[in-house]
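Figure 2 data, in text form.
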Amino acid sequence: MGIDFRSAVFGAIAFAVAIAILAFAYAAFGFYDIGADAPHLGITRSFIGYVRDRSVAARVGDIKVPALNEPGRVVDGASDYDAMCTSCHLAPGMPENEMRPGLYPKPPRLAEIPALPPAVQFWVIKHGIKMSGMSAWGKTHSDDEIWNMVALLQKLPKLTPGEYKMLVNAGVGHHEHDEHMNMGH
């Protein structure tokens, strides 16, 4: 009177195929609203977050974090962050801007949340995040320049607006990275 193994396997396969067909039909008929002004369903948001977190976790294991307190690292990172990141992630004390409300998912205000582990920040900055607007800065910036931004990000949640501005003003300013682009990086 036990469950027939072949029937159970066939039932599981049939169920999986039915779900795949329904998911394909859902997408094929355009039922899912891909507009940035229409939030994901809760289950979709949870699944995407899970995939993102697991993907990054699987790739940061071999990253060696350098000394982030080396002189100049935070200042250089502040110059790049100020030029490249504040339109999406803002800076300490910076008010909301016109671009952020239209972004989905809305980028986190990095000055207002605890810093992620340095290896995670490095990987995300270097490789970006698909379909989130997070650029892969490793295409135009060296690992050392990315570590400078990580050094700043590690301190950012504790910086006052005045301290942040002092760091940015202490730097030589953001420099263009055309040499990377011209070298085929």
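Caption note: The domain at 56-182 is CATH 1.10.760.10 (Cytochrome Bc1 Complex; Chain D, domain 2).
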